[in-house]
Amino acid sequence: MSTKKKIQEEVEVLEEVTKQHEIVLFNDDVNTFDFVIDSLIEVCEHTLEQAEQCTLLVHYKGKCTVKTGEYSDLKPRCSSLLTKGLSAEII
Hints:
Helix content is 59%, strand content 19%. By secondary structure, the protein is an alpha+beta fold. The protein has a single domain (19-90), classed as CATH 3.30.1390.10.
């Protein structure tokens, strides 16, 4: 096997292993800014500033990526956001 082919295969495996997913939070007309901010701090471990910025982006843009990582880490976080009545999905 050529060195170039071997390196390419290693890169493909590494990309597969480290594939990142995102939790996207969507705007709604139900939850208050404070509730969304508190939820992001609790569930996504945001700082106050991160949570405020994400909440403003969700409000004005309609959605925002609030957490990036491996699916196994994001799934329970997304479920917690949904349980709180927020609209979110993993992409």
